[in-house]
Amino acid sequence: MVSIPQAWCNAIPALGVTLAPDLPSPRSAPSGITLQIPPSLVRQELTREPSVPIPPAVLERYRQWRPTPLVRAHQLESALGTGCRLYYKYEGGNISGSHKLNTAVAQAYYYHRAGATYLTVGTGAGQWGTAVAAACAMFGMKCRVYMVRSSYEAKPHRRTIMEMLGATVIVSPSSRTAVGRAELHDHPDSTGSLSLALAEALEDTAEPGTLFCTGSGETYSLLHQTVIGLEAQEQLAELGDRADVVIGSLGGGSNFGGLALPFLGAAALGGPAVRCVSVESMACPKLTRGHFAYDFTDASGLAPLQKMYTLGHSFAPPSMHAGGLRYHGTAKLISALYDEGSIDAAAYSQRDVFGSAVLFARTEGTTPAPESAHAIHGATMVAAAADRQGVSRAVVFGVSGHGMFDMAAYRSYLDGTMVDSIVSDEAIARSLADLPPQPAEITSR
Amino acid sequence: MVSIPQAWCNAIPALGVTLAPDLPSPRSAPSGITLQIPPSLVRQELTREPSVPIPPAVLERYRQWRPTPLVRAHQLESALGTGCRLYYKYEGGNISGSHKLNTAVAQAYYYHRAGATYLTVGTGAGQWGTAVAAACAMFGMKCRVYMVRSSYEAKPHRRTIMEMLGATVIVSPSSRTAVGRAELHDHPDSTGSLSLALAEALEDTAEPGTLFCTGSGETYSLLHQTVIGLEAQEQLAELGDRADVVIGSLGGGSNFGGLALPFLGAAALGGPAVRCVSVESMACPKLTRGHFAYDFTDASGLAPLQKMYTLGHSFAPPSMHAGGLRYHGTAKLISALYDEGSIDAAAYSQRDVFGSAVLFARTEGTTPAPESAHAIHGATMVAAAADRQGVSRAVVFGVSGHGMFDMAAYRSYLDGTMVDSIVSDEAIARSLADLPPQPAEITSR
Questions:
Q1: Which pLDDT score is estimated for B299?
Q2: Looking at the structure, do residues A186 and A327 belong to the same domain, yes or no?
Q3: Subunit contact B367:A95, Cβ cutoff 8 A
Q4: B-chain residues within 8 Å CB-CB of A156?
Q5: Residue B271: pLDDT above 70?
Q6: DSSP one-letter code for A319
Q7: What is the pLDDT of residue A194?
């Protein structure tokens, strides 16, 4: 039986990749607001050890839903008429509904050990908020979630799940914080934004023991997510196969990284060669159409600058259903690997992606999240290309979450009212022009 | 690693239980409408073999989501402070969202083999319709689902899932059938009923190859569901434990039967003794407050009479969130076992049940369906009783489905607006007075 990994995989030393250091933001935070990341997470961000043991208390929680299934997609293969072997790794079977719980549990554990009794968090569509709420419940911590008003009203079920888990959900902008009150004063009808929700959560940490839980795209988040790829490797071996191609959808980078990094690391150490393809949305094509540059990681620009593939922090993607792929940039590590040619990237349109999602649901009996459907569509494209070349490939793709709360999106696809959201060159040029000044020693590389 | 059973378990011979024969309905069906159940299913309904091999084609589909997890509920145990070992078997991880797919796949296979290319089905809240739609997709059959108008409008996501799976969803009453047109003529604003949806589906089988797929409460459905209990037995053995108490929620009987029958059968053959508790809703207490009598299985009364515990076919349960527990009767086999004292029954109120559901979600990280929450509450009650007696018991309970589409119900619980729906003695006496005349040889027993 496949076991849960006992250590996370840090592929950075094996890959020999160097990450450009973060730079202080030229914008200064309001006084009294500081980011307090537990030292254990900071060490994980910087470690050169090839593996990091998973604490027993985190392993115990992982056992509630891990190992997750790796499934040979026989029915999908038949429907496609492909000669490839398709496998999917499914992360939607936990209460948060996605892979995000893998790192939320680890982060909650370290915050708890660092003395936190209360975590605050900002959330847009609600996936990260749900994951942190679930993790806090596991460690007996309280949780306050600032949820963007537009999502709060459009996705009431996400709020209900978080409250079931014991979290307090506060609609953002709120009158609880100075930044929220200022927004309400200036724009009484404000529907909020993720950066504002983050700012409110960051401000609302005055009570002793209350800390702000940063997010899901840090390098330590990618580290925690490697349980996905490590399990997949063992499961493939058990099935007597090995991966030729690994495919994951790309938002902040933790889903793709969690699946691909263990395969990339093993290949770098002399293991079987593997091609890793990250799939983004044509509505937010940071790898395929962005720049590798220092940029703000949030719209308020209070956090340190990071060097990453970005469409510019002022990039506003068009309306799209895969909310988790809307982020303007992606993880430093994924960006560096793409820059050096170690991974591939592809971008697809919304309707093509939903077409593959419906085919997947019909054949494999699992309703994918719109984000995850990007990887599914990528897998069908890779399989079709291999078939044209007359080769059979083992293709492993990640299905990062379930689509139970995305029925309105599927409805619009089935009704034929869904539109493709592809951004213009002009829109991308406009937001890239808004990048902060680049340090000379980096831009001259 | 736990494997998928290769055969279903027929516990009837081991238990030595005799089922009263079905009797023809005194009401006659409209001409041209007949129930055509494939001979293989009829044989399974009557077989005396202790096990029935699962066809390879069904096993192949089961592998998409089976074996399902048996989880030790450590966190729930801690929250309850119990000395008991609590285990839950989770059936919500497939696209239909519940255990119903276990029998839908088997039935679709046999209908397919019997020459069907199109199945029609009636559905209320949508669980059975979703399961049959998924099963039809697996075997390349078409599927037409008649969905009660009130559910069609209140639960649009269920319709979307079924259409994603390729089914045609028709709102009932419809103008497609004579019985639907008559209803629309008499009551243009009719919101429909399950019996009407079943009648429409039954009528709409004129095209060659089109058959009506009966339902989930037949004895062969219980047989198919025994994969749940068989897996649980093996998983417990792997964990070095065995069940003292087995608990399942009771609607039509297939969920409870699927979990409990393998344990009961093993005990009857000299295996370890086990107490099996079926949990119903106080809003629909057929075992705890009904009669063991011949009754109609549907409101139209066209199908044969069955001897079962019933509240009377005219019983209308009060509004409740666990739609799957609203049926007025329960399976013949479960009824006979209860009548002879082989199983126990308990009934709980809606708010108590939701209280345990929220505790379960918070501790175990799984959102249960309201139906399944009845078993969870039952497990907490059994554990509390054991603690009072100072004994430690191994308690296995079934979580038959997920609650992702039941957020409005959870919302009302969290808001404090949920009411308990407990029926009066008068209401039960009224519907029991409406039972059909009983055959003398049965009532004189």
A1: 63
A2: no
A3: yes
A4: 407, 411
A5: yes
A6: S
A7: 81
* pLDDT beneath 70: ranges in chain A: 1, 28-34, 299-300, 440-445
Residues B129 and B112 placed together within one structural domain of the fold: yes
Q: How many CB atoms sit inside 10 A of residue A316's CB? A: 16
pLDDT per residue as tens digits for the range A202-224: 889 988 999 999 877 789 999 99
Q: Give residue B320's pLDDT.
A: 85
d(CA B182, CA B174): 9
Q: Which residues of B200-217 are buried (b: 16+ CB within 10 A; e: fewer)?
A: bbbbbbeeeebbbbbbbb
> Could A365 and B166 be called an inter-chain contact, meaning their C-beta atoms sit closer than 8 Å?
no
Residue B280 — φ and ψ, nearest 5°?
A: -115, 175
Q: Are B136 and B242 within one domain?
A: no
The C-alpha atoms of residue A214 and residue A216 are separated, in whole angstroms, by: 7
Gap between the Cα atoms of B246 and B260, Å rounded: 6
A72 and A110 assigned to the same domain: no
Look up tokens 């004189």; give the residue. Answer: B444
Predicted TM-score (pTM) of this structure: 0.89
> Pick from B175, B199, B215: which residue ends a domain?
B215
Do A411 and A328 lie in one domain? The reply is yes
ipTM given for this complex: 0.85
Residue B87 in any domain: the answer is yes
Examine the domain organization and report whether A327 and A409 are in the same domain: yes
Check residue A181 and give its pLDDT.
95
What is the residue range of A76's domain?
Answer: 62-95+219-440
Per-residue pLDDT tens over the stretch A42-77: 999 999 999 999 999 999 899 888 999 999 999 999
Calculate the average pLDDT of chain B: 92
The answer to whether residue A34 is domain-embedded is no
B160 to chain A: which residues are within 8 Å by CB?
A: 407, 410-411, 414
> In the listed set B215, B238, B271, which residue is the last one of a domain according to the structure?
B215
| Residue of A235, A407, A417 for testing the chain B interface, max B β-carbons within 10 Å | A407
- Is the domain of B318 the same as that of B408? yes
Q: CATH number for the domain including B277?
A: 3.40.50.1100
